[in-house]
Amino acid sequence: MKDVCGFRRGFKPPTMYELQTWILKEEKNAILFIVHEAKLSWIETGCSIMSDGWTYTNGRTLINFLVNNPKGTYFLKSIDASDQVKDAKLLFKLLDEVVEEVGEKNIIQVITDNVSAYKTAGRMLMEKKKNLYWTPCAAHCIELMLEDIFKLPFHTSVFTKAKKIINFIYGYAWVLAMVRKFTGGDLVKPAVTRFVTAFLTFQSLFGARDELESFFTSRKWKTSSYASRSLGKNVRNIVLKSKSFWPGVVYMLNATKPLVIVL
Description:
The protein is of the alpha/beta class. It is built from 13 helices and five strands.
């Protein structure tokens, strides 16, 4: 856009035919040159294969494969692995094909998620390819640790109460508007993973404790229709009267913060 703005009036953009022919060809050649240089660096320094998978709402699972080394990270390809993601043998075959494509002698490690099928596939890969390592994704391992921590009975109780507060606030437009007015912002803090989002939301909730208490003791709240509802009373009691909730939030933050910092 900056280059286009640099031209004076009368500039004629490329035609659709030019974009589809020589311009596209030049761009493709430029990208192929970058990829060629990257492949040469894989030979020089070695590289890591990284897989990144996700599942759509329709159940379809895609896996992106990337190659990383000191020169940077490059996208290799994307595969529909819906029929393979839960089968260790099929995953092993898939990983083996990627290794062959990049070149076994160039690869130091293959990094994947830490679920059981990938664990088995990784061990099978190391048995066949003696000069490389299978490495579980550190971020995924930490996410699983956070999941286990949140499942502990004490944390589950605190988590359930926190969700009740958040769902109540975000479930009613008037309540949300008033809380935003009292706190000066949002309580929910989206992040890259589910449990990091939970941690940041807990942190935000604790940081806004005084403001939430002020809201639930304010005249605006007391005169609202929500104050007489059973759910409203329940949430108010959690914020103002629960002896275990706020200490529980602090305990949970202290328990999970060292892991979240790593992420």
